[in-house]
Specification:
By secondary structure, this protein is α+β, with helices and mostly antiparallel strands. It has helices at about 30-40, 55-65, 135-140, 145-150, 160, 165-170, 220-235, and strands at about 5-10, 15-20, 45, 85, 115-120, 130-135, 155, 185-190, 195, 200-205, 210-215, 240-245, 250-255, 260-265, 270-280, 285. Strand 2, helix 1 and strand 3 form a beta-alpha-beta unit. The model has no long low-confidence stretch (mean pLDDT about 95).
């Protein structure tokens, strides 16, 4: 039987385009199941040529799961589940929201399963997003390194992004409200090697923004710093990445449990606006046991 979804892989590592679907229509359970399977398999799914109001984006998000609350970033007034990610063309020197390698809110006890980003206004050139597969990064390790990393725990914190000393940086964006807090300095521990709750695949649950430390047997400070630096370089290696050039109407869904991403800040003097929703996970990150 022919699948109702047309899924086209975009690289040999991660990323796929799904066509022939209107996300504001009434989608049956089979289509949602197939779409969810594609997200988990390809880790990043592009659904082009959509036309969604914030209400319609929220309605679609709920088909994948309940809303995952977003700390520190204020949603738009009319829609408490929608964050507007916007940088105005009058803010050429402002930082780019999401402009460092990260996995969304990995510092939470239960980080979100999926992020959904819908493009409204994008630069003609620049403003791409790049994702890295932490599944592929784990898969390409030698067995000795895998065994060593199984014993490591990541210490996640929002301190580098959302503590009060970062407020001036966030305030450069006039149409986003980001409220920093001392609570950003709290920490949350997650296994470094996690089992995906739906595919069962192992991945390196690491990103250099929110992982502020590591702990494990015989991991003194010098070795911890060395391993942090190595993980930052290894998990963002170009061989594990997929880069997307946005077009208005693109809706992109990615799996935070097996990727990290970065929004590129190479569109000085141009405007970029996207709406973002997040979908909660049903389980906390858990250790992969080979």
């Amino acid at each position: 039987m022919k699948s109702p979804l047309n899924v086209e892989p975009l690289t040999g590592v991660l990323g796929a385009r799904v066509s022939g679907i209107d996300l504001k229509s009434e989608l049956d359970k089979q289509v949602i199941t197939l779409l969810r399977n594609a997200i988990c398999e390809f880790e990043v799914v592009i659904v082009p040529d959509q036309s969604l109001t914030p209400e319609e984006q929220v309605k679609f998000s709920h088909l994948l799961g309940p809303y995952s609350p977003v700390p520190f970033v204020k949603p738009i007034d009319e829609h408490p589940e929608v964050i507007k990610v916007v940088k105005e063309n009058t803010e050429p020197e402002a930082f780019n929201f999401g402009g460092v390698w990260h996995s969304d809110f990995s510092f939470l006890s239960t980080p979100p399963a999926f992020t959904i980003l819908y493009a409204i206004d994008v630069p003609a050139i620049g403003g791409d997003t790049v994702w890295a597969s932490t599944t592929a990064a784990y898969c390409h390790l030698d067995n000795d390194t895998k065994n060593r990393l199984h014993k490591i725990t990541g210490i996640h914190s929002a301190s580098a992004s959302y503590s009060p000393d970062q407020q001036d940086l966030h305030s450069q964006l006039s149409n986003m409200t980001i409220e920093t807090s001392e609570t950003a300095k709290s920490t949350q521990e997650h296994p470094l090697v996690c089992k995906h709750p739906e595919t069962g695949k192992p991945s390196l649950f690491f990103n250099p923004t929110y992982v502020r430390g590591l702990k494990g047997p015989e991991l003194e400070t010098a070795k911890e710093e060395e391993l942090m630096k190595w993980l930052s370089q290894w998990t963002t290696g170009i061989q594990f990445t997929f880069r997307h050039k946005w077009s208005p109407g693109d809706l992109v869904i990615w799996d935070n449990r097996s990727t990290q991403h970065i929004a590129l800040n190479d569109y000085k003097g141009e405007r970029r606006e996207l709406n973002r929703t997040t979908v909660s996970d049903s389980t906390k990150p858990s250790l992969y046991r080979p």
